[in-house]
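Standup notes, structure subgroup. Blocker cleared on the NDP input:
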Amino acid sequence: MATLETHAASTKQNGHAADGRIPVENPATGQTIGHVPDMGADEVARMVAEARAAQPGWAAMGYEAREKVFRRARKWLVDNRDRVARTIVEETGKTREDAMLAEVMFIADSFGYWGKSAPKHLKDEKVKSHSPFMFGKKLMIRYKPRGVIGVIGPWNYPLTNCFGDGIAAMAAGNAVVFKPSEITPFSTMLMQECMREAGLPDGVMQVATGRGQTGAALIEHVDYVMFTGSVVTGKKVASEAAKTLTPHSLELGGKDPMIVLRDADVERAANGAVFWSMANGGQICQAIERVYVEEPIYDEFVSKVVEKTRALRQGVPGEAGAVEVGAVTFAPQADLIEEHIRDAVEKGAKVLVGGHRGPGPGRFFEPTVVVDVDHTMKLMTDETFGPVLPVMKVRDEDEAVEKANDSRYGLNSSVWTKDIAKGERIASMVEAGSTCVNDAVSNYAAQELPFGGVKESGIGVRHSAAGIRKYCHAHAILVTRFAMKRELYWFPFSKRNAKLLERVLVLMYGRKP
Ligand code: NDP
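Run returned:
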C-alpha cells in the first residue's frame, strides 16, 4: 500500500526517537493503514538544529535555483498524483476529486506561484522618506529569511494546509519543520520524498510526527510558527509562542455565512450552497456553515437545496465519480455534528434531509439540511465542520448582514445577487477576511489575494506578498552617502543649534491648520 511504503521511507529519514507509535486510520473503512512515531521534545530539537544548519546554504542558493527545485517537485507531484491522492484519500476519507483538485492541483499551482513570485515580493524595496532629516540618505527594506519555520497543520487538508504553507517559507530561503496532524501525517511525509527527489538539500525540510505535545515542542525552537487549526488550539499556540516571543500566524476556524438576496440566481446559489457546505464533507475551514435567504425566494431556495442534497451519494471514496461525500475524518467531530443537530432540534429546528450518522464500519454523517434555525442554536454560532446546511429566512438585506456579523468568527463569506454593485456594497459590510460575490471559497485559489481571518478566525494571512513576507525579517537599512563630520543634533549641544532646530520645528509643523 502506498502509505505503508511512504511510512517506511520517511521514518528512516525522520529517525527513531519514538516514544511509542501512533496508529493512523482510514476513517472511511475503519482500518488502520499504518503507524508513525510519536516524537518527543529531544527529537524535535534535533530536527530544528539540523534545519538550522541546512538553512544558510539553501538561502544562499538564490531564487532561481530554488525555483528549479520547485519545478522538479511539481513534475514529481504530477507524475505521482495517483499515489499522492490515494494517500490523502486513505488518511482523510475524502473523495478522490477533492484530493486531486483542492490538494494535488493546488500544491502544483503553489510551486509555480511561489517559485515565480518570491523574488518579486521579496526584492529590496527602496523607500523615500518624508523627513527632512533623511535628506541625502538611502533607505531600503531588505527581506531576509527568518531561519527555521515551524508549520503545524490540521487534518482536513493535510497537503494544502500543512505542506502548502511551507512552500512560501522555503521559497523565501527558510528551512521548515512540519508537524502534521497525528490523524493525517502520511501526505506530508510523502512530500518529503518529493522534495528530496527534486533536489532539496538535506535538512531543509523535516517532518516531526506526533501529537499536540510535539507541536508544542516545535514552537519552543523555531523562529516563526505558522499554525492552522482550531480556535482552542490556536490560543494555546499563541500563549506558548508568547513565552519565547516567537512571531506567529494563526489560521483558525470559521462559521462562514452565505447571504442570498431576493434577486439572486436561485439555481446557482442553491448549487453553490450544496457544493460549498458538503464538499469534503463540510470539513473546510471556509465551508458555508449558515445561509441567510431573503423572504421572497426562501421557499424556492430551500426546495432546491433539499432536492440537490437528497441526490448526493455518500460512502467509501473509490474511483473518480463514485461518491460526492466521503467520511468524517476525525472521530470526535461526528459527536460534535450530532450534538449541534440535537441542540438545534431541541430548540425548534426542523431537519429536512439527513440528520444522522451513516452506516459503518467507516465514520459517516449524512448530508443534512436544517431549517427554522436561529442564533440561540450552536448550529448557527459554533463551527460544525460537517456536511450540514442550516438555512434561515431573513426579512431584508439589513437583517442578513446583521446576522452574518453576529459571530465570533470572520473567515470567509459570500453574497449572492444579480446586482453586482449591490453585491460589492454588501460584501464590504461583512466582517470577514474575504467575501465572494456569486461564488464562495474559490478566492482561495487566487494566491495573489491575501487569505486570513478576522475576529477569532485568526491572525495574519497566507498567500499574496504578505503571505511570504511574514516568513522574513524586514530589515530596514539606512545608508549615509554624503555627510558632514557631524549632524546638527549630535553632541556637543549648543544654544545656537538648539535654536536652529526649534526654528525648523516651527517652520515645518507650526503653520495654521
Ligand atoms: P487542531 O487545532 O485540533 O489541531 C491542529 C494542529 O495542532 C494539529 O497538528 C495538532 O496535533 C496540533 N496541536 C494540538 N495541540 C497543540 C499544542 N498544544 N501546541 C501545538 N500544536 C498542537 O485542529 P484540527 O486538526 O482539528 O483542524 C480542524 C480545524 O482547523 C478547524 O477548526 C478548521 O476550521 C481549522 N482550519 C482552518 C483553516 C484556515 O485556513 N483558517 C484551514 C483548515 C482548517 P494533533 O492533531 O496531533 O493533535
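Discussed briefly. The longest strand covers residues 137-145.
Next: hand off to the docking folks.
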